[in-house]
Design goal:
It contains seven helices and five strands; from the N terminus they run βαβααβααβαβα. By secondary structure, the protein is α/β, with parallel strands linked by helices. β4, α6 and β5 form a beta-alpha-beta unit.
């Protein structure tokens, strides 16, 4: 059964300067965000990574994506709202993933995202979203990212479809070094 999608108000003034950079895990999102930060841009770190770092150090924690996806997504949503509300609305800010990612991840795991619709509608982003593309040469499977490359590609596909379904305009980033990616993004947001 297809779930209702959030109605994102791209004309909301709060959306104008909030840009998302997303894609499948391990395809250079965080590296691109770090490059933008090095260039003096306002950035927000990935909430999922912060939750994983916090929870993986607690042996009994179940708030990890491979243990309890629902609890993990709830923790991410709370952190993403705090991140969003803590950013200046009148300055450009680049987010390492965002609330709309929850739709793609929920679809990937065949879970409901209904509980996130209201929070997504209250925290809009710019219609233009930047997507990294599958890039096996830079992909690293590790303790924080245990999923194999082919699964990361499937996540990428679910995320891209979800963003497209929600009305975002996807700008795919080329397989180039982080500086070139950051320069491309900055050129696009100045248009």
């Amino acid at each position: 059964m297809e779930q209702q999608l959030p109605n994102i108000d791209f004309d909301d003034p709060r959306a104008r300067n909030r840009y998302l950079i997303t894609g499948g895990p391990g395809f250079g999102i965080t590296t691109t965000i770090k490059e933008l930060e090095a260039l003096g841009q306002n950035t927000v770190k990935e909430a999922a990574r912060q939750v994983i770092h916090r929870e993986i150090s607690q042996p009994d924690s179940t708030v990890l994506p491979w243990k309890d996806r629902t609890a993990f997504d709830d923790a991410i949503a709370k952190l993403k709202v705090l991140d969003y509300e803590g950013t200046p609305a009148m300055q450009k800010v680049f987010f390492d993933r965002g609330l709309p990612d929850l739709v793609g991840w929920s679809r990937y795991y065949h879970k409901s995202y209904r509980r996130f619709i209201g929070v997504m509608e209250k925290h809009p982003f710019n219609r233009k979203v930047f997507f990294t593309v599958p890039w096996e040469e830079i992909y690293e499977q590790n303790k924080e990212r245990p999923m194999p490359y082919h699964e990361s590609v499937r996540v990428h596909d679910q995320l891209a479809k979800a963003y497209e379904d929600m009305g975002f305009e996807i700008q795919f980033l080329s397989k180039v070094n982080p500086k070139e990616r950051a320069d491309f993004i900055l050129r696009q947001v100045l248009v």
